[in-house]
Amino acid sequence: MADHQNKIEKILLINPPRFNGHCVVREMRCASLATVTVSPPVELAYLAGLLRKYAEVKILDANGLNQDFKDIEKEIERFRPQAVIFTVSPTTFRADAQVAQISKKIDKDIKTILLDSHIAPALPNEIKQSFPEIDYLVGGEPLMNIPNLLGFPGVSDLEKHPLPAYDLLPISRYSSLSFTRKKPYGALITSTGCPNYCNFCVIGGATVERGYGHRWRFKTPRKIVEEIKYLLSLGIKSIYFFDETFTVSRDRVRELCEMIIDEGLKFEWSCNGRVDTLDGETIKIMKKAGCWNIMFGIECGSEGLLEEANKGTTLARAMETVGHCKKNGIMISASFMIGLPEESMETAKQTLAAAIKINPYRAQFVIVTPYPGTKLHEELKAKGLLEKDYSFSGYDAYCINNSPVIRTEKMTSQELAQVQKYIYRKFYLRPSFVISTLLGIRSFSQLWDILKFIRYLK
Question: For the chain, how far is it from start to end, CA to CA, in angstroms?
Fold first, then answer.
């Protein structure tokens, strides 16, 4: 425990503001700009759930509330915390770091703690030099490492995770065109780590210690149901299971679904999956338990590249699993990757053809992002395919109109950006897709989100 003079009695957790009009996702396993999604800071919610056992805790979700850094400054001056914990994304790092600068300007004794698994574990010295106002960098096990920094006991056992402090968040602000149809929505973490070794991933392809590592750890269905009931008690109607791969274990998925059905829990939910982890029977019970949407990472379009990028995830296998989902009325979202070293205009068009053949409810086409501290970063750097190395800016190719930091053996970075927009237009502006989307609109807010997205296709 910290000594009495420096005892931590007030803690402020901050999700920094939006960036150039974009909402931002800032989580350990996923950080990106978002076009039409306002996501809850789920890892801050779990952390707050633990820390408030020992101190007065507040969460300021400036991203969710669409507040700016002046609002953050006012809250720090009003609340007077002894510790400020904040998150960042690679694209918004320089802007987000203002949280530490503002904190130190108000009170130089405030402990400033950065929670970030994307950049901090790979470039700790560079961050310390460029942002001296940040006292501590935490790149893994936040519920263990951050409480210990503050003099409190941490938790590593997922079964002992606290309930996420959604009561401290502006729940009504959260929505997602891909993952929610009903509002309000929340996210839960039911497992950590990932057993796969994709070289582009900050977990699977990591060359530094970060996140929760390769070892897949999971909460039991009974623990998950406890958290589900808590969110439902707050009026949340839709839940996104924010795991790397929620469907790693079919047995766990089936047991959870059976408990949801047996206890009569009524809510819609979505998750991330891999097409080679599911079968028809599992998909059927998922639908009965309220699953309406699964996000699959298809990675690339041509069958050869699919096999290389993600063993077992061929286009034929993807079509089989997608067929089971559609047969049972589960919507499919799909993430396709473009920009691996062998990418050409021909293979990019194969990606588009695969996406149209699969015909998911939503699709994203992501230019590969070689985060520092991953095997892919080292490979592309050795091949001379990095247009610029990381400098606390612009490492995000989820959003259209962002400039890629890579080129391929056959395409320039400008050509990659052009082909990304080309694929988005060709996929989303198909007459059949437009008609089915319009017929599926349930509310004015959903229509508004769709119109905002279409604006980025221009």
Answer: 56
